[in-house]
Structures
1.
Amino acid sequence: MGLGQGDLLDNADGPHEAVNVHSRAQPGVPTLSRLFDLNEERELMHRRLAFTVAGVFLATSALAACTSSGDGATPSDGASTTAAGDADAPATLDFWTWTTNIEQVIDIWNKENPTQQVNVDRQAQGDELITRLLTAEKAGNAPCLMHTEYQALPVLVSNGVAADLTADVADIRSAFPDGAWGLTSFGDQVFAIPQDVGPMMLYYREDLFNQLGLTVPTTWDEFAALAAEVRQKSPTQYLTTFSAGDPGWFAGLSEQAGANWWTPEGNSWKVSIDDPATQKVATFWGDLVKSDLVDSQPMYTPEWNAAMNDGTLLAWPSAVWGAGVLEGVAPDTAGKWRAVPMPQWSAGDNVTGYWGGSGTAMSASCKYPAQAMKFMTWLNTSPEALAGLVTISGVYPAATAGQTGPALAAPPKMMPNQPDFFAQASEIASSARGFTWGPNVNVTYQSYVDEFQKAIQDGSPFADALTRMQDTTVTDLTRQGFDVVSGS
Amino acid sequence: MNNTKRSAGATSLVPARDAPQVLRRRSRRHRLAPWAFMAPALLMFTTFLLIPIVYAIWLSLRANRRIGGGILSKLTEVFVGLENYGRALGDPILYGALGRMLIYGLLVVPTMLGLALMFALLLDLPRVRLRTATRISIFLPYAVPGVIASLLWGFLYLPRVSPIRAAFEAVNLTPPDFFTSTSVFFSVANIAVWGGTGFNMIIMYTALRSIPAELYDAARLDGCGELQIAWRIKVPLLFPAVVMTFIFSMIATLQVFNEPQTLTPLTNVISSTWMPMQKIYTDAFVLNDIYSAAATSVMFALVTLVLSLGVLTLLQRRAFGEDR
């Protein structure tokens, strides 16, 4: 019924609409450009169905058939046991994922393991896949293997969909930097194996910087001064834009500043979205936006594409996958961009955040946990799979070995002028810090979009928007029944 | 129907005291026949409308709650009574969306129906050239799906890709900003008017074509000009069609979703809860709270029903009473 439900939803409403609300885990081209660029696959698109009242009724009717009163396994079940069963026994595993060309990578596995076949099912992408996974779990037919963005993982965990992998990953812990495990862990429990990461870095237009005589900023203070310099030297251009449409981007900037939006404390969640670090980030950008030193149009719109192409925007704080995005939105600018470490809050520091990224999780109801675990380990740590992920799927692997392999010797297509792009990226990746995602990131992200849009419109302080983001998040967690400790 | 049967049975073959039994048997068979004919429709109605509605109401009384302790404790569906309704009714975001919907409706409905009426009357004038071609070209936008239309218009609205803006700049005029907090209402309404006028025009035009030509001849003999014919004969006779298109447009306004939802990622002006349907959608599929979404949907469906029936009752005598 899980599949049927999806089909019904699809058919019920005709044309889909693309809505970019959440962060992108993958090299992502904006949804709109995607509609007009059929070749571009490297994207995490959040497709939304157009619903009318009738549509909602129809959808809920579909859900009706999927609801079962029985409870699945609770997430804390088997917290300290390893996946039971013989890892080499025959099995058929379903894998719901949207990674580009992942079928070709999995073909390698399927050839080597004729009795353990993995079937890729492209149900949906990003948050839409999460919605479908929740439904499939209710219907009792969730796939064994699931692709999930890091910030969506807690939703899967608190709904009992994702299995606890803590004991299973003991052997492969050293294959990943600690920061990567932080993205898939809550307290000491691990619920997914990191697949790809998006350490943030700053892209800038080398040609235009030279033309205007600009210096690459190494601190945020320099960044702000540069933004003013750009406006003064060329009033039609902006250094960059602040996007109220990309909460994952803002979260990454906050990670860099040292924020910890959610922290498990005993049996409670400590929520501190408006902590001093994030306040600092919000105020910094708020001031720039208010004095019109940076643009405030959302990213991933035709407008933004044009601005990235024609040089209206000179720089883009993005992630390692940003080069792939540029290829999609501004192909004519190949060779004109350069990627450098993010500006720092204190001179001499070397730290960055993550924008997006995703991992592989296993469903709690998986009948072949041992085999699934074996596959997940192979996909995310074996040299052949990592090479495949890089060259075939174009992702930047989370595994340390995946960030240095020969597959990454050549720079991305957009950066021929920077042959050591991936060497630099690897260095930057090692300086990335993440934070723990809470169980209602979807609410927080939506609140970010709503509040920051409003703040830009009204010209009200960003710090207030942040406070409302905090309040919305705490209210929702409390209403769901979690114990919440608020504060900074 | 029963009366004729009774008299037939009573007068001929059947003795009088058996008559009720036969009657019952026959009429039972006859009573079943309409149900058999209606069965497919009823089945579909029950499966795809009645059960979903009941399920939506059921969902609206429930919510996900944490059961047991811990930071990752599982969420379980529990019964919460009318809590979802209470929260929806106390939600300022919903009222904001309703207010915007009202403004939008006040812009769209009169403009769209006025244009449709005007086009229909113009096309109905005698000696109009290229009648079919014109009719089709006015109707054509209706064939463009709302999402596609919104994308097209979105491109026209966005400053850096907008040819409209380029045209203004070419003649040294200040180009309009289509996405300010005020102009956005006109920008979104424009898409709906563009898409909906043709459909409503066709309804009105069809109604016009069914008005007997003798009425016009009589009017002309009495000295009416085309304008007077339009105003004194056509428009009053069109009233039922106008009422119908009004109710359609009103319901479409209550359900407006595609246009704003498509434009949402393009601009900071349109939030994800700009219109009521967007709020319901966001609750259900972004925030994963189908329970609140169900409660809002149920209330919204009730309001739609009451409004439609109210408008119908109010206008019915005026619109359809003249035939009686």
2.
Amino acid sequence: MPDLGKYTETVLGAYGISISIIVLFVLWTARRARIVKQELKKLEARSQNKN
Amino acid sequence: MSLWEHANPKKFMSLSGFILPYISTLSMILLSWGLLWGFFFTPDEVRQGSTVKIIYLHVPTGLLAINGWFVMLVGSLIWLIRRHHVSALIAKATAPVGLIMTIIAILTGAIWGQPMWGTFWAWDPRLTSFLILFLFYLGYISLWKTIQNPEKAADLTSLLCIVGTVFAILSRYAVNFWNQGLHQGASLSLDKTENISNTFYIPLLISIAGFLTLFLTLVLIKTRTEIRLRRLSNLHLIESRS
């Protein structure tokens, strides 16, 4: 860990908050994409079975 | 092959599906490289001390917050002129990503501002324009959710996007228009003599590239999701009618 001096909390706070937001957003985006893809797959399979 | 062929949802899904693994891998590499280099291997700055390391978060996200809006503007204009649904969906998908970039830019700016300026916030031209841009992002996303008819939603959000572009431009150029305020001028310039030192500049460029590829990855994923949602909605409609 580099010596951040008197700004340790400031810098670590900025990095901590930013990386947390990015990670959460990426996970949420990926999860939503997966759920919608699965839902579409089910519905398309159902439509094909009906036809 | 014309670029407009990718306005076809199937062609867009095919191309984006091919690109996605490469661009997402590239974003992970560049983002890690830029942030790790910036955090661990750059020195403190004379006046700002170790807070200069926040630049590797603040500047890329600030740039993408502004340029994300321009991506939405292009998508909106293409929708209004050529009525390509995929372009409207790209604009819709870009908004939450741009919003997240704006939030990170504002938060890191506030955290950085406290030790440097003695305040988390000032009603400086650039900061104020940025805050208004943040509100426009919120308004744009809310408008999409509020209007049921997708074509009407695309029309109205496109008009909102055009209006909001004023604040995207002001966020970038406010420092030039009003020769006042706490926020410094650009850290990057095509004129090399105006740039920050290479010690910080090169990892900053890598960080920007990392955030840009992350932005593109997320926009592609979200656009694909929006196209699938549109298809889901159409299938539900067909099912309910049969």
